[in-house]
Amino acid sequence: MPQKFPAIRLVALDLDGTLLNREGHVTPRTRAALQAAVDKGVYIVPATGRPLASLPPEVAQLPGIRYVITCNGAAVWDLGTDPVGAVYSRYSNAKEHHTSTPVCLLHSMMPVETAREAFAVCESCHADLRIFSDGYACTDARSIALAAARAAKKDSTEARQPNDGRFTILRDAAEWMSRNAFAIEKLCVFFEDPQQAAAALPRFRAVPGVEIVQGSPKNVEVTAAGVDKGEALRALADRMLLAIVDTGSGWVMPNHNLYYSIKPDGTYVEGDYPYLTYNDLYDLRKYLSSSERPEIETLTYLMGEKLQWMQNNGVTGYEKG
Hints:
Blueprint: E1 10-13, H1 28-39, E2 43-46, H2 57-60, E3 67-70, E4 75-78, H3 83-88, E5 103-107, H4 112-124, E6 128-133, E7 136-140, H5 141-151, E8 167-170, H6 173-180, E9 186-190, H7 194-205, E10 210-213, E11 219-224, H8 229-247, E12 261-262, E13 268-269, H9 276-290, H10 297-312
Parallel strand pairs: 1-2, 7-8
Antiparallel strand pairs: 3-4, 4-5, 6-7, 6-9, 9-11, 10-11, 12-13
Helix pairs in contact: 9-10
């Protein structure tokens, strides 16, 4: 008997080495695959260690992009109907671009004293330092020069990022931190070789209340303890569930079938699956019940409408129980 899989509703994609190729671009084949997914109502969510300012405009322009997980999950953004403008809002030269205002749905920042202690370790490394705060990518002139030198090496696997305004250059990082330690999403240090990074790891891990990961053997990334992309994705899914509740009966067609998806302009799209959506709602209600969350009446209502349509049209294969 063939295995039944729930319909895919959301795809979260890392950037470097996944969505982007070695040159830092989205290939035509990838773009076509994403368009096909969006046409079926699938949400495309970039999930990256970068801050919002470092989300490539090429990615923000992709079909279906609205939500993005940044800084390893420390922030989740709603880019609205103008994703490119939302990214440019975090550029140092934002006044040179058309911008829009993104909404931060989740912010898991480091406690002030934790951020200060982690920053002190970063400074002691005398390496390329990046400070991510409120979507901005902050650094200093010395770090930019170190990054350029690494990029010139043919063996470098680090993601190439142009200095096109996406970096906010600080005159004095320590002075800036003294005023902004309360707003740190992530600290990132790039070393010249893996040995230097490995030698620094014990000092970073000794800082209480942090999460330490390495995006590559040559870097160390620091966020608040418990931050990860999976938890951020779960938080985003919860917010999207609330959106379903808010739109409620709008999903129901006159014949009791459900619309398939909703567009950014608020119009609904027909062409729902015969029974897979019902099974998805069934599984979602089952999950919410097992995790001791309160029952959501909207889910029960939508399931009831879909069930009536299936029974009226002789559809089988749906979950029963």
